[in-house]
Design brief:
About 75% of the residues lie in helices and about 5% in strands. Strand 3 and strand 4 (about 105) form a beta hairpin. A two-stranded antiparallel ribbon has the order 1-2. It has a two-stranded antiparallel sheet with strand order 3-4. It is globular. With about 325 residues, it is mainly α. The longest helix has 28 residues, at about 200-225. Helix 13 (about 245-260) crosses helix 16 (about 290-310) and helix 16 runs antiparallel to helix 17.
Length: about 325
C-alpha cells in the first residue's frame, strides 16, 4: 500500500500505483513543456505556479478514471495536462480579482509582476491548453468549452451575488457547481473518455467528479474556520478576513434572518466589520466554531461527498473504484 496524490490517498494495488505514478510524472513533464516559451520572461511567469507545486487533484482523478478503459491510451495524459493548465490559469486570474499576496507558499504572480502580467500569463496558459486540446478532437474541444463557460459563469455569479428572492445558500451551491465542480468533472470525463471507457462509465465518473468537486470546496469552507494552520496548511480565517462568503457564514446569516437572535446578529456585525485586527478575527473564529452554522456546513459537505460515493455504485468493483471512494473519505476527514 503506497500513498500517492492529495490527502495521502492509499493505493492498494501495485499495478494501479505504477500507472498512477507514471501518469502523474508524465503530466508534470507535460506541464513544464506546455509552459515553455521562446521568451524567457514568459516561461518564468508561466512556470511560476507549476513549480510551486500543488495537489494535482485533477490529474489524479483523470488517471484513476482512465483505469475504467485503457489507461495507457495516448490521449489520457494530454487531457489531464489540459485540465491542470486551465486550473492554473484560473488561479492567476483569481489572485488578481482577490488581490492575493501569496499562492501555494510563494508570492502570487500579481504581487511579483503586477496585475497585467498575471492576467496575460493566465491567458497564455489558456492558449497553450487550447493548443493541446485541438489535437484531442472536436468532442474534447466542445466539452472543455462548455466546462469553461460554466466555470466563468460561476465566477460571475459569485461576483454578482444572488438575485432578489434567491436563497443565498442555493445560489452559492450553484456557484460551486460551476466554479469548482465543472472542471473536476471534466478531469474525470477526459480520463475515462480518452481511455475508451464505455459511455455509461464516462457519465458516472463525470457526475462523481462534479459532486466531489463541490464537496471539496465546501470542506475548504469548513477548514477556513475549524482548522488550525498545522492541520490545513493555510491560515485560519483567511476567507473571513477577505470578506469571501462561505457556507458556514451563509448558514449563520440565514439563521439570523429567521430567528433574529441577538447573539447571531452581534456575530454578524463582527464578521461584517474590520477583521484585519488579529484579536477581532480570533474572536470571530472562536464564536463561529461554537455556532451550529458550522456543523450545518459540515453536514452539507458530507451529504455532497456521500452523493459522489453513491454515484460510483454501478461501476465494477476494482482498485480504482476503491481509490475514488477513498477520496470521498478523505474529503469527509478534511471537513471533520
Amino acid at each position: 500500500m503506497t500513498v500517492v496524490g492529495p490527502f495521502g490517498l492509499s493505493v492498494r494495488d501495485q499495478a494501479l500505483e505504477a500507472d498512477v505514478q507514471t501518469g502523474l510524472a508524465a503530466v508534470e513533464a507535460g506541464l513544464l513543456d506546455a509552459t515553455k516559451s521562446e521568451v524567457p520572461f514568459i516561461t518564468e511567469a508561466a512556470q511560476h505556479l507549476v513549480r510551486a507545486g500543488g495537489k494535482r487533484f485533477r490529474p489524479l482523478l483523470a488517471m484513476l478514471s482512465a483505469q475504467f478503459g485503457d489507461a495507457d491510451a495516448p490521449g489520457v495524459v494530454p487531457s489531464a495536462v489540459v485540465v491542470e493548465l486551465t486550473h492554473l490559469a484560473t488561479l492567476y486570474h483569481d489572485d488578481v480579482m482577490d488581490e492575493a499576496d501569496v499562492r501555494r507558499g510563494v508570492d502570487s504572480a500579481n504581487t511579483r509582476w503586477g496585475n497585467s502580467v498575471a492576467v496575460l500569463t493566465g491567458d497564455f496558459l489558456f492558449a497553450r491548453a487550447s493548443h493541446i486540446l485541438a489535437d484531442l478532437g472536436p468532442e474534447a474541444v466542445r466539452i472543455q468549452a462548455e466546462a469553461f463557460e460554466r466555470l466563468v459563469t460561476g465566477q460571475i455569479l459569485e461576483t454578482a451575488g444572488p438575485r432578489d428572492g434567491r436563497d443565498p445558500v442555493e445560489h452559492y451551491l450553484d456557484v460551486m457547481r460551476g466554479k469548482t465542480g465543472s472542471l473536476i468533472a471534466v478531469a474525470c470525463r477526459f480520463g475515462a473518455m480518452m481511455a475508451g471507457a464505455d459511455e455509461s462509465a464516462v457519465d458516472i465518473l463525470t457526475q462523481y467528479g462534479e459532486r466531489l468537486g463541490v464537496a471539496f470546496q465546501l470542506a475548504d469552507d469548513v477548514l477556513d474556520i475549524a482548522s488550525d494552520f498545522h492541520e490545513s496548511g493555510k491560515t485560519p480565517g483567511t476567507d473571513l478576513r477577505e470578506g469571501i462568503p462561505t457556507l458556514p457564514v451563509l448558514h449563520l446569516r440565514a439563521q439570523a434572518a429567521a430567528d433574529g437572535k441577538p447573539e447571531d446578529l452581534e456575530l454578524l456585525e463582527l464578521l461584517d466589520g474590520d477583521l484585519s485586527d488579529d484579536a477581532r478575527l480570533a474572536e470571530a473564529l472562536c464564536r463561529l466554531r461554537a455556532h451550529p452554522a458550522l456543523e450545518q456546513a459540515r453536514r452539507d459537505t458530507i451529504r455532497w461527498t456521500e452523493e459522489a460515493r453513491a454515484t460510483l455504485a454501478p461501476l465494477p468493483e476494482c482498485y480504482a473504484k476503491a481509490a475514488l471512494e477513498e477520496l470521498c473519505d478523505a474529503v469527509v476527514h478534511r471537513a471533520g
